[in-house]
Specification:
By secondary structure, the protein is an alpha+beta fold. It is built from 11 helices and 11 strands. The protein folds into 2 domains: about 90 residues, Phosphorylase Kinase, domain 1, CATH 3.30.200; about 180 residues, Aminoglycoside phosphotransferase (APH), C-terminal lobe (Aminoglycoside 3'-phosphotransferase, Chain: A, domain 2). It has a 5-stranded antiparallel sheet with strand order 1-2-3-5-4, with helices on both faces. Strands 6-7 form a two-stranded antiparallel ribbon.
Length: about 290
C-alpha cells in the first residue's frame, strides 16, 4: 500500500536538499483537486499542497500570486519554499503559519494592509497571465475599462461555463446578458488596484501573533471594490474592518448598492464549483436589473 509519508519526505528532500523525518502529518483541507497537509518535523513545520493532475500549473500561478502580494502589503503572506512535480504529484511547499487568538487590533490591521495592497496600481485591468480562482481558470486579458474587463473576463467565461455544464439554460443566458448595458455605468472610476481576488474568511488566517495573514490568492489588477464585496459573502468580516478601511482609503458613495453586482462573479464561481444552490442569488440580482 502506498505510504503518503514516504512521498511527503521525498518532497521535503526535493525542496530542502536533505532528509527530514516527519513526526506528524495532518490533513488540513481536501477538495476535488487539491489537498492541503500540515507536516510537523524535527526541522520545523510546513504546509504542503498537492494534486495528481497530469498537466497543471495551478501551483505555479498560486506561487506567482503569493509573491506579488508579499511585495505589496505589510500583511503576512506565506513564503513559498518550493514548488514542482515529483513523479505523479504536483506540489507547493509553504511556510507553516501557526495560529493564535485574534489581537484586539486584528480587523484594523487587516483593513490597513488590504488598503495598502489596493494602493498598488497598474495602467490596465488584468494581469500578466491567466490564473485560477479556487480550481477554475480565471482569464486576465488586459482591458483599459473596468466594465469591459468585468463583463468579458469575469462574467462571460463563468456564465458560459455554467451553460456548458447544464447549470443554466439558454434562456437564462440571454436574460443574464441583458444586464450588461445596465451594470456598466454603476462602477466608480478608479485606477486598477492589485486585488487578492478571492477574499473571504477562509482565506484570511490568524497567525501566531494574532494578526491577519493572506492565503490562496487569485490576484489581478481590478476594481478594489471587488475584494470588499467578496469579503461580505459567507458571513462577512467584522464591521470594524469596513469602518477602518473607509478611514484609510475612502470608498465612493453607494458601495452597498454595488455589492451584489460585484458578487455576481464569486456567485458564478460557486455555481460552477458546487452546483445550482447558488443560482437563486444570481437570479435575484439579474431580476433587479431587468
Amino acid at each position: 500500500m502506498h505510504d503518503p509519508l514516504v512521498s511527503y519526505e521525498r518532497i521535503l528532500f526535493e525542496a530542502l536538499g536533505k532528509e527530514i523525518r516527519i513526526k506528524d502529518a495532518r490533513l488540513i483541507a481536501a477538495g476535488n483537486m487539491n489537498q492541503g497537509t500540515g507536516l510537523m518535523t524535527g526541522s520545523g513545520s510546513f504546509f504542503l499542497k498537492t494534486n495528481h493532475l497530469e498537466d497543471s500549473d495551478i501551483f505555479l500561478k498560486e506561487k506567482l500570486g503569493l509573491d506579488v502580494m508579499r511585495g505589496a502589503t505589510p500583511l503576512q503572506v506565506p513564503e513559498v519554499i518550493h514548488w514542482g512535480r515529483l513523479e505523479d504529484t504536483n506540489f507547493l511547499l509553504l511556510e507553516w503559519i501557526p495560529s493564535a487568538n485574534r489581537s484586539t487590533s486584528y480587523w484594523e490591521v487587516l483593513a490597513e494592509g488590504l488598503a495598502e495592497l489596493h494602493m498598488c496600481n497598474a495602467a490596465e485591468f488584468g494581469w500578466d497571465t491567466a490564473n485560477y480562482i479556487s480550481i477554475l481558470p480565471q482569464r486576465n486579458n488586459r482591458q483599459s475599462a473596468w466594465d469591459m474587463f468585468f463583463i468579458e473576463e469575469r462574467l462571460e467565461p463563468m456564465i458560459q461555463r455554467a451553460l456548458f455544464h447544464g447549470l443554466i439554460d439558454g434562456a437564462f443566458l440571454e436574460q443574464f446578458r441583458r444586464i450588461y448595458p445596465k451594470i456598466a455605468g454603476i462602477f466608480p472610476k478608479e485606477l486598477p488596484a492589485l486585488l487578492h481576488g478571492d477574499l473571504w474568511q477562509g482565506n484570511v488566517l490568524v497567525n501566531g501573533f494574532g494578526a491577519p495573514a493572506l492565503i490562496d490568492p487569485a490576484v489581478y489588477f481590478g476594481h478594489r471594490e471587488m475584494d470588499l464585496a467578496f469579503s461580505r459573502l459567507f458571513g462577512g468580516f467584522d464591521e470594524r474592518f469596513y469602518a477602518a478601511y473607509d478611514q484609510v482609503f475612502p470608498l465612493e458613495p453607494g458601495f452597498d448598492e454595488r455589492v451584489e453586482v460585484f458578487n455576481l462573479y464569486p456567485l458564478l464561481v460557486h455555481l460552477n464549483l458546487f452546483g445550482s444552490g447558488y443560482l437563486a442569488g444570481i437570479k435575484k440580482t439579474v431580476r433587479r436589473f431587468q
